[in-house]
User: Fold this.
Amino acid sequence: MTWIGRSLPRLEDPALLKGRGNYVADHAKGALHVTFVRSALAAGDIVGIERPAEGLVFTGADLDGVGPIRPVLHRPDYRAVGQPVLPVERVVFPGQAVAVAVAASAAEAEDLAEQVFIDIDPIEPILDFDAALAADARAVHPEAPENVLVEGRLETPGFAETVASAHAVVELELRSRRQSAMPLEPRGGVASFDEATGRVTLVASVQMPHMLRTGITDCLGIPESDLRVVAPDVGGGFGQKMSLFPEYVVLVWLARRLRGKVAWIEDRRENFLASAHSRDQAFTVRGAFAADGELLALEADLRSNVGAFSCYPVTCGVEPLMAFGELPGPYRFSQYKVRSRGVTTNTCMMAPYRGVARPMLTFTMERLMDKAAAQLGIDAVDIRRRNLITAFPHRSPTGVVYDEGSYLQAMEAAVAHVDIPAFRARQAEARRHGRCLGLGVSVFSERTGYGTPVFAQRMMGIVPGYESVDLVMDPSGNVEVRIGASPHGQGLKTSLAQLVSDEVGVTPDKVRVVSGDTDATPYGWGTFASRSIVISGGATKLAAVAAATKLRKIAAKLMEASEEDIALEDGYARVAGTNKAMPIPELARAAYHQSQRLGMPAGIRESGFYDPAGTFSNACHICEVEVDVETGGVRIVRFVVVEDAGVVINPMIVDGQIAGGVAQGIGNALYEEMIYDDDGNLLTVSLADYLPPTALEVPDLEILHMETISPESVTKAKGVGEGGTIGAPAAVLNAVADALSPFGVEINVMPATPERIRAAIRNAKVPADA
Amino acid sequence: MKPAAFAYLAPTTLGEALAMLDGVQDDGKVLAGGQSLVPAMNFRLARPATLVDLNGLSELDHVSGDSDRGVVIGALVRHAAFHAPPFEGPLAELLAKVVRDIAHYPIRQRGTFGGSLAHADPASEWCLVAATLGATMHLASVAGTRTVAAADFFRGTFTTALAPNEILVRVDLPPLPAGWRTGFYEFSRRKGDFALAMALATLQIDGGAIRAVRLGVGGVSDRPRRLETVEAFLAGKPPTPATFAEAAELARGAVAVTADIHASEAYRSDLLGTVVRRALAEAAA
Assistant:
């Protein structure tokens, strides 16, 4: 019996469920508290900063010698913009930290911060890409006079002729409004200075502790060895916590300056205002189709509002360039013309959020398929059958190589599970009673587990990708796995323990995974981009295989058997075909304490390193909704997911990833929107204004699995962290559009709020009572 | 998001509470369930110098009466008390219907009936109940107790007839005996969110015609509104969809709606018509 494939309860959960988690705020005891003084204006020149007569207040002028955060992309079209840790000349987005107040408690630090007056000469802010791209637009940054920080262009050689000879061209203009990843635990850090060593330890709620250390020490001009970064339990990240923020640089600077301990625990308002946003995009596409529904060519103009700065380390290219490269998704066409721009504005910085560009590009391709189907008189499922990729490896027009997937099979399985003819009958019956039901299909690819080979193509100054793992079995036979990944809610420690258990033969509870501490783990890139089970899991498996090999050697020596005959399972090394067995702890003890008998180096200590090209997961989502046409309200009736993530190591954890992702996708589709007013004030600064779905808005999901094995993953597992979020918006919005098809209206904006839906119905070509 | 410094007083009798509040006057604020006040303090939108905590005043935590005689509700009664009201009849059914749309279960355990009215959020369900049914508020101070009709109590967003040294101690809801039918419809972005629009209707129907009616709307303007002109239109009419559609149009004409990020004026006005129709239809069903 293997541990892989079992829904083992998460080893992480007992502590979390009993309130014994170890979050950053649990480290704040004895610290001075920090409050950042933030700009109330979106744009302006700093004329002066008045500090109170008493109290610890610092500004950018105090941060002598501290460099800006300056992510690099080696592309000719990239305009590098430095983000000053605390600006002294000008502010470029509302909520930008300008000064910092330090006091004995958080409340007193807020009192002190209220006494700091920042005098700003206001400038009219540029808030959206239309304003930023206008011919006479002011430059948000002098380094980027056109307000475009990055731009990708491509046109395949046969594009124009293909479009000219196409049967029909279908056009779409879609918009995703700005959203927040909104982790339940906002950001936070506790920095403490150690007098004995002169080092600072920063405990912070982050996804990339090693990268954070590099970024902070680069800004401060100190060696990495002077800083230890620890990511304790992290209450959600979703990409928001993978960037370096000025606040963390300030905390480490303060700890060194004050030779003490300082804590900053971000509140919800700050998190909305000044952490990172996402998804502010407008895509215009034209699909050229043959009469039988084959998509022949696609033209796309993609604009992403990347906010005031480029995020470190992945840069502001992350959304526009992902959209540029992966818009074709799971469809087969070969002619592609695309222009994708990252536009800078006086708004909060854009950073990765679960799904990165793909929720919008999946919405785009899936709307395109539905609209083309309607225009050409083809069934919405049939048009996908005609266009989905079925031969592998598949090379997209942008050169992305897809390993084997089950795009068509997953859709067929979902379609069969849902029973579309039965739904159509219910839909027709409901319409006779004035009720509007709709069904939406979404098929998509999810690129996961990609290492250095793929990241290198992005030409970032810092190229992530590989993972390293150090695995040690101690003399008692327990295993410690030190990983460079930094899980924060994914249940990775449990999944890795299952992988290790199957190799070395001890139960998962004897496997301790250590992560998120730069003093205790090998340099690694953290947890993001649906990578950890593939890459860190792969490195873990390789290390575990090496450890198992050594255990077998030891067992063979001690039991005078052949190494090939040793099986490691249930805590024992057994000799096949005999009743000879030794408990694994005895082997471990011998490895450390009787090494002279073994004729091999003492101890059991192995490393694993893995740097794959990546593997595509795929899925099909089908959603059923009912739209209340009088209010514009949407109720999700049913949601089906057929997921193919290769070998599923822990089904419960994988289903949890899918469920959480779908919940966020539902939020993207129907509820969540960050709103600035015309003056650049953010209006959505609390959870009364910004509305993620709750348990009441998310239906029970029906999740089915397929299992395509990829040679690109040594664990045979594919990543599954983002798929739910990528696929759900398109399924929900296609369902809404289907429900409203009698009115002849289109759903072109997400979130499709009740007001937007109601307005579309009121403006419908076909009256509501028709 | 920590409150500015404040003094905290915890009286155990109403007399003590009134004396304390009178002592602090303008800088004082009464704390009941704290479900609105405490977040406002954490945002530093509210900065009372002194809080007078009513939670020790068990004398304010009681409900008495019934649908036939009307109900007396102490100011400290929690919303959750109406999940299963301690009396029967149409009034109990109405309150039980309405309470389910007030925020979420944990908030309903803590938030109070009196606190909702004194806070006077335009989207408060209890304020709509009080305005529509014509509740009577009892306001106490060291000088004594006075009564104010709901129509005079709500003055605007977060604004009431309460003087700085007064405490809302009791609310009387008039009788709603057997024979009255009730309807309530609220539309919000998510379950438990602030109403974008809501309507409450009580009807007596006899011989195929509406004999008596109360109709109110909330969440649409600066305060809950009882719509007397629409009530007058409905009286004597048959309780049909056509009647209710006309009533909805009249209601839209009677209220100047407000806009926020979740609903423009046009959308909210549109919703107002829908919730009025649905509340009336539910009452008539």
